[in-house]
Amino acid sequence: MKIVLNRINDDYLFECTNSAGNSILLDNTSEPGAKGVSPMESVLMAVAGCSGIDVVSILKKQRQEITKFSAEVEGERVQIGDAKPFKSMTVTFFLEGVIDPKKALKAAELSFEKYCSVSKTLEPNVQVNYRVFVNGSDVI
Which Pfam families does the record cross-reference, listed alphabetically (predicted)? Predict the structure, then answer.
């Protein structure tokens, strides 16, 4: 796996491109007029994407009918010297459709305990928590 990063303006805007030619923009979001996401926001996005793929895949195999899927990820950072790495993250999944809430919760559990390579990469330094809502109800 390899990506290429290219600076595309005179400031901090970078384009990151994978081997298939797909790209995202990274920028210094503390500067006005940023046109991309910050590198730390991209880490949150990666966790959401990786776990989202897992959850949808698991539920599709179980023939659950997902009509809508979204996720939010909030990260808490801590000052360590000059850096501010993540201390914890909470991923909240919102699913709608004909879905067994227990299966949705189990899919999220499997993602974070077994499959999600991004969250596994962050262990043990970042505590990743999750919540699941199915058709507006919190699954506990």
Answer: OsmC
Q: Helix crossing, 39-61 with 101-110: angle to 10°?
A: 130
CB-CB neighbours of 114 under 10 Å: 9
> For residue range 84-95, what is the model confidence (pLDDT) as tens digits?
999 999 999 999
Percent of the chain that is helix, strand, coil (3-state, to 5)? 30, 40, 30
C-beta of residue 121 within 8 angstroms of C-beta of residue 115: no
- Select from 17, 16, 109 the least CA-distant residue to 27: 16
pTM for the model stands at 0.94
Cβ atoms 80, 129 nearer than 8 A? no
Q: Are 116 and 71 in contact (CB under 8 A)?
A: no
| Domain ranges (residues) in the chain | 1-37, 39-139
- The pLDDT score that the predictor gives to residue 140 is 85
Which listed CATH number (3.30.300.20, 2.60.40.1190, 3.40.50.920, 3.40.50.1110) goes with 39-139? 3.30.300.20
